[in-house]
């Protein structure tokens, strides 16, 4: 009998598993990213373009003495650019790639909240009728009040960023 109670409690714990997401607006959509990858949120800064950089790299900004590449997340996701208003921010992300941590910045039209989202609140991405659509960079959908939050997989989007966005070859920025 006791063993059944323990198994039942473990099942409840699994159901209650949650993650923390930073939610922000981009191109009229609300997106969510796992806060484990968020290093900091900064005011919009002047972006210095880099010649011959990959098309998604808008340039670099100085963040506490480090040059951080700013990537056009909207282009990566196929989201139309949003309006730049006073609420716009840059979100600096940090990933472990190989033997070091790499920072990448993205732009947000507006940063909303930091939300706990239980695994049970994440809906799968509807794929019916979209056989050729690569939704591998999406984790799922979550609802907050009347908003639908698209949870994105930063590792899926930037997992190979160590190679693709390595701007050190001859540039001397990192």
UniProtKB/TrEMBL annotation:
Entry GO terms, CC: cytosol
Family annotation (Gene3D superfamilies): CheA-289, Domain 4 (2.40.50.180), SH3 Domains (2.30.30.40)
Protein name: Purine-binding chemotaxis protein CheW
InterPro entries per UniProt: CheW, CheW-like_dom_sf, CheW-lke_dom
SUPFAM superfamilies assigned to the protein according to its UniProt record, in alphabetical order: CheW-like
Any single GO BP term: signal transduction
Superkingdom of this protein's organism: Bacteria
Domain CheW-like span(s) in chain numbering: 18-163
Pfam families in UniProt: CheW
């Amino acid at each position: 009998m006791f063993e059944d109670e323990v198994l039942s409690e473990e099942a409840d714990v699994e159901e209650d598993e949650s993650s923390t997401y930073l939610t922000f607006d981009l191109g009229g959509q609300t997106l969510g990213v796992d806060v484990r990858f968020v290093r900091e949120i900064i005011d919009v800064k002047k972006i210095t373009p880099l010649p011959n950089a990959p098309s998604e790299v808008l340039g670099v900004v100085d963040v506490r003495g480090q040059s951080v590449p700013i990537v056009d997340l909207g282009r990566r996701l196929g989201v139309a650019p949003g309006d730049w208003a006073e609420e716009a921010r840059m979100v600096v992300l940090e990933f472990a790639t190989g033997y070091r941590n790499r920072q990448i910045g993205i732009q947000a039209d507006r940063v909303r909240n930091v939300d706990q989202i239980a695994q049970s609140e994440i809906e799968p991405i509807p794929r019916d009728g979209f056989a050729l659509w690569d939704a591998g960079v999406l984790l799922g959908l979550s609802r907050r009040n009347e908003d639908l939050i698209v949870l994105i997989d930063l590792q899926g989007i930037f997992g190979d960023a160590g190679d693709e966005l390595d701007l050190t070859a001859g540039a001397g920025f990192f």
